Each structure stands twice: as C-alpha cells, then as structure tokens.
Amino acid sequence: MEATIPSRRIQVRPRNRANIVIQVTLLTLTVLTLYGLVTIDARNVEFFAAFGDMLANFRVVLFEARLKNLSWFDLFRELMVTVGLGLLTTVFGAVPAFFFALFAAQNLAPRRVTDAVKAVMAFVRAVPTVLWVLFFAVTVGLGAAAAVIGMTFHSISYLVKAYAETFEELDEGALEALRASGANWWQTVFQAVVPSSASAILSWTFVRFEINFSVAIAMGATAGAGGIGYDMFMASSFYLDLRELGIFTYAVLIFAILLEWGATRLKETVGATR
Amino acid sequence: MQPEAFFLRRRVQSAIFFAAILGLTYGSILLTQFDVIQGLQAVPRAFAWGIVNFVPDERAWTRLPRILEKLQETVLMAIASSSVASVFGLGLALLGANTTRPHPWFSLPARMLASIFRNIDVSVWALILLFSFGQSGFTGFFALFFVTLGFITRVMVETIDEVSTDSVEALRATGASYGAIISQSVIPACLPQLISWVLYMIETNIRSATLVGILTGTGIGFLFDLYFKNFNYGAASLVVLATVVAVLLIEAVSNAIRRTIL
Questions:
Q1: In this predicted model, what pLDDT tens digit does every residue of B27-37 receive, in sequence order?
Q2: pTM reported for the whole predicted model
Q3: How many domains, chain A?
Q4: pLDDT at A272 over 70
Q5: Could you tell me the CA-to-CA distances from A51 to B76, B133, B138, B213 in Å, in that order?
Q6: Do B191 and A139 count as a contact with CB atoms less than 8 A apart?
Q7: A109 in a domain, yes or no?
Q8: How close, in Å, is residue A164 to chain B by CA atoms?
C-alpha cells in the first residue's frame, strides 16, 4: 500500500475575507506605487546625480549650519511667532470644538444632529489647511489674520472628531444616573461628561497643538503667515542659503521633539488615569 | 483629605490652568499681531464672498480634465511615497523594536533617526530638497517619504512589541532562524496594523502633497495656486471640490478596508 504522504502543503493561513482584502490592498498599492513612480514629473532632473547632491546637502545642513541674515534673538522671536500661531489656533479651535462635539456625540445628541455635524466637519477636514488659509486671504489679505482663521477652521474639525469620540466612550451608566435624578442636559454635560473626559480632551488638544506648530511653519512658508516658516522660505527660495536654513531646521526640530515628548507624557498619564 | 479641601484644590488648579492658557493666548495675539475683532468679522464676510464668487462657473468646468490629471498626479505621489516609506519604515522598525532587533545597539539609532525624520515638518523637508531636486516631482516625493518613514517606524516599533513578543519567543525556542521568525511570525502578525497606518498616511499625505505642491510647483497644489493668483476663483473652487471628493473617497475606502482586516 502506498504511504499517505500529504501531497499538498499544509494551509497555514486561512483563505478568509480579511486575508483576501489584505492581499488585494497590497497588490493595488504596489501597482499604484509603481505607476506613480514611473509617471513622476521628473522635469529633466538627473535622479542619481540629484540624489548624491541631496546627501551632500544633508551634510551641509547638519554640520555647516550658521546664521547670516538673522541674529539669535531674531531667530528666537520668529520661532515664538510660529509657536504663538500654533497656540492661538489651538485655543481658538478647542473652544468651539468642545461645543460642536457635544452635538456630534451619539450619546448626547439625537442621531440626525450628530450625522449633520459630523458630515460638515468631515468636509471641513477634507480641505487641506493651506487652501482654507488662502480662501480667507481673499477677504483679509495674506498674513497672520488669514492664517489664524484658516488654521482654526481645520483645528475645529479635527478636534470635534477627537472630542466626540472621547465623549462616545463615556460610561453610559453615569449619564443614565444623572438623567434619572433629574439633571438637565447642561448639568449632565458639566457633571459627568467634562470631569470624566477632561484628561483625554487635554491630551487631544495638546496633540493638535503639536500639529498646529508644524502647520504654522508651513503657512509661514506658503501663505505669508510670518514666523520661522517665512524665514525658511526666504532662505530656501530667495537667498539660496542652505546653511542658514540648517539653523532654522535645527530650531524647529528641537522644538518639535520637545512637543512630541510632552504629548507622549500626557498620553501616558491619560492612559494611567483611565 | 476633606472633600471640601479636595474640591477647593481642584478648583484652584483649574483656575490657574485656565489663567495660564489665557495669558499665553494673549501673549500670542500680541506676538503674531493678530487682530481678533477683524478676524472675527472676516469669517462671515469670507463666506458671503465665497458663496457668490467661490463656486465653479461654466468656464471652470471646461478645465476639469486638467484638474483631474493634476489631482491624479498628487494622489499617486501620496500613495507612492507612503507605500515606499512604509516598506523602509517596517525595516527600520524591525531594527528598533525590542523583540526583533538583531542587537540591542540597533535600537536607539533606529528610533532617533525616525524621530528626526518625522519631527522635521514636510514643508521644511521640501524647502531643503528643493536645493537638489528643484521643481520636480522628486522633491515632493522625498519630503513625504521622510516624514512618513519616521512616523511608520515609530508606530510599527510599538506594534511589533505589542503583537509578536510571545510568538517570537515560541519560535526562538523551536530553533527557528531570524529570517524565518520575521517572515513567518512578525510580519504576518503586524500586516493588518501596517496596512491601516499606510492608509492613514495616504490620507494625510494627499493633504500634505497639496501644500508641498504650492512650494514646488507640482500637482494639484500648483494648479490651485496658479488659478488663485490669476483671480480665477471659479476654477480654484473646482480644485478644492475635486480635492475634497478625492480625500473623502479615499477615507471611505480606507475605513471599509480597516473594518474587514482589523
């Protein structure tokens, strides 16, 4: 009698829906990536020469950075303008976002209202921040005002989503208990919703501050918002001064790392108190 | 502690906190020279103007093919940079994660490199890369690539340590080789999370690519800038509309994929 040697390999990964979707997604991404790379707008740039040039430029940025047009005090002031833009738009975004989020959370508002608020916010979020800023620049002109309003808009839509998701995770029992004891809607909000989600709200707001700091750099470079982003744009496109750009890069890098560290710490404490 | 004392302390703490925020906000208003009254008045004015002028007119619709062509360029750049960066990011994360690092010495450099990459903003990368790649698609591609690489490395380091510590230990006990452990256990276990993060980065990068496009003169950002500076607000609004549709569409597809694989 013939020995029963298994002729097929043992099936290790089941052919379920999830695995098929994973494979199709990977295949689609690969095809689109290859197509994207082949059709990239090269504009006569010799890739390998430019790549070598890039490495050389990184070395200059890293090791030969120095200031020229600005003093150290100017640098600090410009950095603080960018930080100020980030802070202002976060605070201005957080306050309305808190109230909108109350109407976007399914355990606090009727379904029809939450759907409407969420749809509007999804639209606002889908528009890139720079387009919001330029939109407002038509009426107030390019500058800090347009940048603040535009960035605030995007912050609101982001924070409404984050806050609403936090509210929806609330313990239904606490809300039920307050409602049963006759508390009105605002009392429920301020006695149950705010105390139990305060640390999560704080954490999300700080994350948004971190984002708004980098957006503020970008708005300085593209939409005339001032601050260090504008100086970087001038160093790059006007003075062609890679060394001064290097100092600016160090400045924003150090500040961003500090912010990220703060956000991580805040997240850990939120996780601990949950 | 007495309950009264506890609540008093909490009240004082929040009062100090809000006072500090108010102070910082006031300082920021002075520093950035932002005119709050003018700013508030501008919002209704901007929307009143937008409803009349910032809508696609007939002339704008004739430009739709060109807009879609540039939008495709931007979306493809976001997908390509996110995907390529994720492959490299996974590699860097394998070196950096506690479970999979070949040697403890690899961990810190890998994580530091990732931290530098993601904490330099995408616009700053673009400004630096403009020196070598000029106004070509490569500038945007690499700007998005570096930030994504840093981000994916960070989240994958966490995922690898979370998902595969036990299975790696089990496989090591059976005497499996390093390559076999990575390819048979770690990568399959992390793949759903990785795909989820790649999709997230694609969504983010479409928006970032629009911004970078304004700086480097490529893609949909360039087209918006062009129409906008020529006061062709009808066409500019169509660009915004097309971008929004693309972003929402990709978000919907990503969410559907996420629901099945996670």
A1: 999 888 888 88
A2: 0.90
A3: 1
A4: no
A5: 21, 8, 10, 20
A6: no
A7: yes
A8: 18
Give every CB contact of residue A86 below 8 A, 6+ residues apart in sequence: A209, A212, A213, A215, A216
Q: Can you tell me which residue has the tokens 């003075």?
A: A239
Q: How far apart are the C-alpha atoms of B158 and B136, rounded to whole Å?
A: 35
Residues 6+ apart with CB under 8 A from A150: A129, A130, A132, A133, A134, A135, A136, A137, A219, A223
The answer to whether position A164 is within a domain reads yes
User: Is the predicted pLDDT of residue A11 greater than 90, yes or no?
Assistant: no
Residue with tokens 């890139």: A128
Q: Does pLDDT of B243 surpass 60?
A: yes
Q: A162: domain range? A: 69-273
ipTM for the predicted complex comes to 0.88
CATH number at residue A87: 1.10.3720.10
User: Are the beta carbons of A145 and B27 separated by less than 8 Å?
Assistant: no
Domains contained in chain B, CATH given: 3-53 (no CATH), 58-261 (1.10.3720.10)
Q: Taking CB atoms and an 8 Å limit, are A138 and B34 in contact across chains?
A: no
Residue A31 lies in a domain: no
Tell me which of A29-43, B28-42, B57-71, B127-141 is least confident.
B28-42
**What does the pLDDT look like over B178-192, one tens digit per residue?**
888 888 889 988 999
Instruction: Tell me how many residue pairs between chain A and chain B have CB atoms under 8 A apart.
Output: 216
> Which token pair is A268?
């850990």
